[in-house]
Amino acid sequence: MSKISKFFKGGGSAASKGRGGPSPQEALARLRETEEMLSKKQEYLETRIERELAAARQHGTKNKRAALQALKRKKRYEKQLSQIDGTLSTIEFQREALENSHTNTEVLKNMGYAAQAMKKVHENMDLNKIDDLMQDITEQQDVAQEISDAISNRAGFGDEFDEDELMAELEELEQEELNKEMRDVRLPSVPSTSLPSRP
């Protein structure tokens, strides 16, 4: 067994071991703590790099040995900084993957609950009974529509008369009324004098 696998196998807390591994929340919390620690180390290394660069400039050509030592330390700090950048990227990727896995697990769990609830709801439903019920509903809707149509149509009172006959009778009445009005009209008499001739 390698040292790394021993480290990871033996690295959990007693509470986590009893449950068969850490919960996603615990793992996420630890990853965030590690990210914070590495970010602080980054800041520290950036400060040290600036100091060593300033020291190398200060010694410059006066004390070449001190300037070279400062530049060597700066290079070591830059290498550490680069390693931390890579580690941070890896941790960030792992944290995002764990968050996504946890979200997917919760979604699947809730979908399972919903499926069980639907199964329970449909437990007492028989498709044949539903089909019969839907046919009954359709039939009753048709009956209701027929009743509604029957009620909304004009009642048949007076529909047995011929419309053409009625129109002819109405025209006769109008003509009689017109003749009566014409008899009562007095026209002016025609003048007896002759009209003047043209000038």
Automatic annotation (TrEMBL):
<feature type="compositionally biased region" description="Basic and acidic residues">
    <location>
        <begin position="177"/>
        <end position="186"/>
    </location>
</feature>
<comment type="similarity">
    <text>Belongs to the SNF7 family.</text>
</comment>
<feature type="compositionally biased region" description="Gly residues">
    <location>
        <begin position="9"/>
        <end position="21"/>
    </location>
</feature>
<dbReference type="GO" id="GO:0032511">
    <property type="term" value="P:late endosome to vacuole transport via multivesicular body sorting pathway"/>
</dbReference>
<feature type="compositionally biased region" description="Polar residues">
    <location>
        <begin position="190"/>
        <end position="199"/>
    </location>
</feature>
<dbReference type="InterPro" id="IPR005024">
    <property type="entry name" value="Snf7_fam"/>
</dbReference>
<dbReference type="GO" id="GO:0005829">
    <property type="term" value="C:cytosol"/>
</dbReference>
<keyword id="KW-0653">Protein transport</keyword>
<feature type="region of interest" description="Disordered">
    <location>
        <begin position="172"/>
        <end position="199"/>
    </location>
</feature>
<keyword id="KW-0813">Transport</keyword>
<dbReference type="GO" id="GO:0005771">
    <property type="term" value="C:multivesicular body"/>
</dbReference>
<feature type="region of interest" description="Disordered">
    <location>
        <begin position="1"/>
        <end position="25"/>
    </location>
</feature>
<dbReference type="GO" id="GO:0006900">
    <property type="term" value="P:vesicle budding from membrane"/>
</dbReference>
<dbReference type="GO" id="GO:0015031">
    <property type="term" value="P:protein transport"/>
</dbReference>
<dbReference type="GO" id="GO:0031902">
    <property type="term" value="C:late endosome membrane"/>
</dbReference>
<dbReference type="GO" id="GO:0000815">
    <property type="term" value="C:ESCRT III complex"/>
</dbReference>
<keyword id="KW-0963">Cytoplasm</keyword>
<keyword id="KW-0967">Endosome</keyword>
<keyword id="KW-0175">Coiled coil</keyword>
<keyword id="KW-0472">Membrane</keyword>
<dbReference type="Pfam" id="PF03357">
    <property type="entry name" value="Snf7"/>
</dbReference>
<dbReference type="GO" id="GO:0009898">
    <property type="term" value="C:cytoplasmic side of plasma membrane"/>
</dbReference>
<protein>
    <submittedName>
        <fullName>CHM4C protein</fullName>
    </submittedName>
</protein>
